[in-house]
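Hi U.,

Before I forget, here's the chain from the pilot set. I'm dumping it here mostly so it's searchable later in email.
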Amino acid sequence: MSDRQVLFPSSQRRGGCAERSEGADGVVSSATHFGRTDHPGASAWRLSRLPSSARRGIRAVFYSLLWLGLSTGLIRAQQNSEIHVLHVQGNVYMLVGAVGNIAVQAGNDGVLLVDTGAAQMTDQVLATVKQLAKPITNRPIRYIINTHFHPDHTAGNEKLRAAGTTITGGNVAGNISDATEGAALFAHENVMKRMSAPTGSEGPRPSGAWPTDTYFGDKKEFFFNGEAIQLLHPNSAHTDGDSIVFFRRSDVISAGDIFMTTSYPIIDLRNGGSINGVIDALNFILDLTIPAEKQEGGTMVIPGHGRLSDEADVVEYRDMVTIIRDRIRDMIKKGMTLEQVKAAKPTRDYDPIYGSTSGFWTTDMFVEAVYKSLSAK
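Structure:
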């Protein structure tokens, strides 16, 4: 088995006219065969000879079925309470199945987590982290980083932090009895503002889930397990407290919910998010990434939700968000109302891949968030 373990067996990855292959470097690539005469069944379709409207319809059906299959697989994984481990590269691993993705860095100094997942998955996450770290280190969780404050990424904070130990120096451990209790928890200061409350008031989250260390400004840097780690803060993207985590030696980025492969961007307007901030943050991620051979691999990007990605995936996502932003901005300039913009369906050609008519974040909600973000004075 290669260093990068594949989450699903090949028999589960086959479907329609899609093929997936894993190269020598472990990067999974895919190809969709439309109109190829050398592919089984292609002669029956002869897509290239059909009218363009028919081809678009067939492609829409194909992507809808593909999305349905992926959604069903995700639901089953959550129902089975399974946490899947994927070695990304270097010291970094990706945990899938805790609702929000979790990045794990393990080495001689201990374990670092980026995000902690949903509350109902905390016990499974902790057991998986211990099993993952056992052959690498006998030291505990030392650091936890929150990419933002939403509970699908932070609800496990309290229990996972309690399972760790903070690194202290000098006489601190002797002078302060609880100085080493629990892992250190880093986040941008706006995460603390969203989780806590003024003195005398009850915060929306228990104090044990709050960050123990916050930073302000645009970055925080430290060194752990033989590599530099940067926390980079974009202004008003998914929220106003986002952190992009860059493992420089492993060449891995944990993007939080700024980048996802499963839906349109979630723009939390009430908590400082904006469409232009999301696009700026995606462009910033692209400034950090460098592709390998044939523009694949290289810097790997762990999304807040969805599959492991590289620069090309972020480029496609950035382009999609920018195109939709520009369409809606043009409609606003023409004086169209929100309902008229929704009726015009500015996301139509991307809906088979990213759209949804039900659930936590629908296409209409995304269009409304973009409209309100661009209309704000």
